Amino acid sequence: MSDAERPGAQEWVPDGGGVRALRRAAEDCRGCELWRDATQVVFSQGPSSARMMLVGEQPGDREDLEGEPFVGPAGRMLSEALDAADIDRDDVYLTNAVKHFRFERRGKRRIHEKPGVAHIEACSPWLDAELFTVRPKVVVALGATAARALLHRTVRIGEIRGTVIEAADSRGIPLVVTVHPSSLLRLRDRAEREAAFRAFVDDLERAVEVAG
Ligand code: URA
Ligand code: SF4
């Protein structure tokens, strides 16, 4: 089938076989140049029967090394917030808008670099296939990159966070946009950080309500 007949899909994205087949196929993805410097693809974590899908930005340094999403500092913050919202992390499907780590080398360190719109668009067939396969009751975009990937337009997180966007995609799955957990890590003031954490938890609780 040609790409014209499967809008949004790429021939290297399998359309059967579940998440396992997607994960395996993504190991060979050359959809953009990010595979080249990354250690490995970081696909997703969690059951394909999940009612809630959480979408992050891209794997970080730890995730790149371990091959699992949200295992570094941002992941710990996310786990804490899920706990506070009474959500079992094992019950949610966790993935990223971009599946390879983008970074800049500074000496021995690898410094996280935001994925560009071209990377987000190149990687979106994977996210699309995940949505199609998992069919969650609600999707949560963690930050601007995930929101861009899911809405195909640039949004201001401050303006739309916490709101429920009905039928964000053609499948009619509602979307809740919130902040990225790493934004909480950057807050130095304790009161500010606590308030931001509370607001993040509120958004996750809203997503639970939407999932029903
Ligand atoms: N940040 C993300 O957006 N995703 C991860 O998997 C880890 C950190
Ligand atoms: Fe493919 Fe996405 Fe990796 Fe780019 S970042 S090579 S599109 S899996």
SSE order, one letter for each helix or strand:
HEEHHEEEHEHHEEHH
Query: What do we call the CATH homologous superfamily?
Result: Uracil-DNA glycosylase-like domain
Total E-strand runs: 8
Beta-strand percentage? 5-15%
Number of helices: 8
Describe the largest sheet. 6 strands, mixed
CATH topology: Uracil-DNA Glycosylase, subunit E
On the 0 to 100 scale, the average pLDDT is: 93
Bound molecules: uracil, iron/sulfur cluster
Rough outline = globular
Please describe what this structure looks like.
This protein has one domain: Uracil-DNA glycosylase-like domain (Uracil-DNA Glycosylase, subunit E), CATH 3.40.470.10. It has 212 residues and is an alpha/beta fold. The strands form 2 sheets. The chain has a 6-stranded mixed β-sheet, sandwiched between helices. A two-stranded antiparallel ribbon has the order 4-5. α1 packs antiparallel against α4 and α4 packs across α5. The protein contains 8 helices and 8 strands. The protein has helices spanning 18-26, 61-66, 73-84, 117-134, 144-151, 157-160, 181-185, 190-211; strands spanning 44-45, 52-56, 93-96, 103-106, 109-112, 138-142, 164-165, 175-178. The chain binds uracil and iron/sulfur cluster. The site of uracil has 12 residues, from α3.
List the helices and strands and how they pair.
Layout: H1 18-26, E1 44-45, E2 52-56, H2 61-66, H3 73-84, E3 93-96, E4 103-106, E5 109-112, H4 117-134, E6 138-142, H5 144-151, H6 157-160, E7 164-165, E8 175-178, H7 181-185, H8 190-211
Parallel strand pairs: 2-3, 2-6, 6-8
Antiparallel strand pairs: 1-3, 4-5, 7-8
Helix pairs in contact: 1-4, 4-5
Uracil is lined by residues 56-60, 63, 69-70, 72, 74-75, 96.
